[in-house]
Every structure is written in C-alpha cells, then in structure tokens.
Specification:
GO terms for molecular function: ATP binding; single-stranded DNA binding. This protein is an alpha/beta fold and 369 residues long. The protein has eleven helices and 15 strands.
Length: 369
C-alpha cells in the first residue's frame, strides 16, 4: 500500500502541489515553518478526514480559501490502482470519494489507508490520559479484527442508553436490564479482541524495542476497565448508586488502559525524553507489523522531526526499523544530512525541499531511482 501520486490544495501555507512519492522512504526537509508538517497533515487528512494538529478545521484551510482538498492515487498490494480524495470547507462539510464513488463514512478511508503518526505529541501515549492509550489499542484491533467495529458500535449505543437512564431515570427496570445485558455482552466481546491483540503485540513490541533500546525490565500490561476477578454485571450492580450520583457508568471497556512500567515504576516517570520517543516508536512500528501480518495491508508512516531527541546511533537504528517494515514512510527534518545516509543502497529514497510552502523534489536515490 503506497501513495503513488499526491495532490494537495489550500492546506495551510502550502502552494498547490502534486508529488510523486517513493513507495518506500520520503524525506521532506526545510526550515521551521516552511510547510513540512503540513504535508504530513494533508496525508493524515486524506486517511482520517481530520487533522492531527488542530481539532478545529479553520486553521487547516488556507487563508481566504473556502475549502481544502487532498487527492491521491494509491498502489494496492495486488498491483491495482485506487483513487481517493477528500475535501472539507469552512462549514465543516465533508466530501469523500473512493474510486469515483461518494463515500459517507470516514471509517472506509481508515480501512483503506492504515496510517501511523509519530510526532512530538506522541509522548502523550505514555504521559497522557488512558483515552489516548485506548485509542492506540483500538486502532490496532480495528485493523486486525473485522468484527471489532460492530462490537464497538454496540457498546457505544448501550453506554449512551445506560448513561441517559442514570442521569434522567427514563427507562423502566425491564428496559434497563436489557441495555445492561447488551452492554455486558459487547464489553466481553471487545475485551476478548483487545486481549488477543495485546497477546500478539507484546512479543513484536519487545523484539522491536530491543533493536532500539535495552530495557529488559519494561513491561506492557492491560487493564480491561473493571475488576478482573468479577463479572461486569456484578460490578455494575455494586456501583449502581455511585453511577447514578455521577451520571455515567464507571466500569467497562470505556475505562480500559495500557500500562507501561519499568522496574515497578510508571515508565514515563523514569525514562528520558529520547527513551520515551523510542518506546513510542517501537509500539507503533510493532503495530505496523501486525497489520501487515493480518491484513496484508501495509501502513503508511508519518514521522515528524525524526532526528529530534535522538543521537546518531538511535537515529540510524530507527531508520533501520522503518526500512524493514517495507512500507511507505514520510519523514520531516530540518537538516536532511542527518538522515540522508541512514538507508541501505537498495532502498528507494525521495527527497523534497520545502520552502515557504513550495515543494521541490531534489533527489531520488536507491534501487528504483
């Protein structure tokens, strides 16, 4: 899976541009503020219909423009080509087209174009709220377990009904029991998918991390969101009074978390910033391996400011792991000389200079040059 052509219009400060990326490594370099990260943002917009830099749409659309758009030609694993595009305007209207057909759900984009982002905000995976780690976990489960999405949708519906009842008492006892049962069934199903996924992820993560950083005492564990020794229904019954006081359900998979600990301590409290970055990279690279194994659909990786926080040894180690994924990678940096020689001679590498929103391809090296 790789973008063979990318056209970006009216995204932040970028001038209208069409790129012909390498199917493997793409380096975008230039001064701070030149527009490098905006290229990654455009690809993220194409894959997920939203930005990773802002929850608001207005800053993404270029000043004095009514809408922005991103279109791409996609080379599939079977050699076939697909076209996909997205347009968003200042009124938040969204248009998605895949192979010439209008699409209503952004989930179809996500399924077609698995995307992993490594950027300065990635530290939040370790130091942020459990919600961020749940999103990381569920991204992986979504891409390897086809039944996960329907179970997740059932869970959300049951939670909405139960929380509404907790706040307003609008359900009779029979209806409330029905929604409790649906909540428990969906929760058990989701918990099973998450456990299976984590069991597959852990050895790949450990192997990946070992190539970057020797942290033998680092452990990755999973909290499912309620007492592991009790059925969810029993937990819901016991916490009913407290749930009604708070107006929401306290126990369930919506409270799940991943926990990373080093020698008994919370990993984020012990690791340096550079070590944290390598742990996050190992987690996301491990996910890419699992998606490729389960779906034969390779992720596209967006790596913003790769050299930051890393010395030469770890930069080269990380480049080697990204290279071994055999997938398409877009990397930004200020000084391209730091990364120019980090690749094998048989790896196709395209280099793009970004200056004041204009992008120029400067070099293509490697076997497909």
């Amino acid at each position: 899976m790789a973008l063979s052509r990318l056209t970006v219009t009216a995204v932040r400060n970028l001038h209208p541009v069409t790129l012909l990326p390498s199917p493997r490594i793409n380096l975008l370099y230039g001064a701070n503020g030149s527009g490098k990260t905006s290229v990654l943002e455009a690809i993220h917009l194409l894959a997920l219909a939203r930005s990773f830099r802002s929850t608001r749409l207005q800053p993404v659309i270029q000043y004095e423009q009514e809408s922005c758009s991103v279109f791409a030609q996609l080379q599939r694993e079977d050699g076939q080509l697909s076209s996909l595009g997205i347009a968003r305007d200042r009124h938040s209207d969204l248009q998605i087209r895949i192979d010439g057909e209008n699409v209503r759900s952004a989930a179809q984009l996500a399924q077609l174009l698995p995307l992993q982002l490594i950027n300065p905000d990635s530290f939040r995976l370790l130091e942020g709220s459990p919600k961020i780690r749940r999103q990381f976990l569920d991204w992986g489960v979504f891409h390897v377990e086809p039944r996960f999405l329907s179970a997740w949708q059932r869970l959300q519906k049951a939670l909405r009904q139960r929380n509404s009842w907790l706040r307003h008492g609008t359900l009779d006892s029979v209806s409330q029991a029905v929604w409790d049962r649906e909540l428990c069934l969906a929760s058990e199903e989701i918990d099973g998918y998450r456990r299976d996924y984590l069991q597959a992820l852990k050895p790949v993560f450990e192997q990946t991390l070992a190539a970057l950083l020797p942290l033998q005492d680092l452990t990755l564990s999973y909290f499912r969101g309620w007492d592991k020794e009790r059925e969810l229904q029993a937990v819901l019954d016991a916490s009913l009074l407290r749930d009604r006081q708070l107006g929401h359900t306290q126990a369930g998979p919506q409270r799940a978390d991943l926990r990373l600990r080093l020698a008994g301590h919370n990993a984020v409290d012990v690791l340096s910033r550079g070590q944290q970055k390598l742990v996050v990279c190992a987690l996301r690279i491990a996910q890419g391996h699992l998606v490729n194994r389960a779906r034969r659909k390779q992720c596209i990786y967006l790596v913003d400011d790769l050299p930051s926080e890393l010395d030469e040894q770890h930069r080269h180690a990380l480049c080697g792991l990204l290279q071994d994924l055999n997938c398409q990678v877009f990397i930004t940096c200020v000084d391209h000389e730091l990364l120019r020689d980090g690749w094998r001679t048989d790896t196709p590498v395209a280099m793009f200079h970004v200056e004041h929103g204009r992008i120029t391809q400067t070099t293509t090296i490697g076997s497909e040059a």
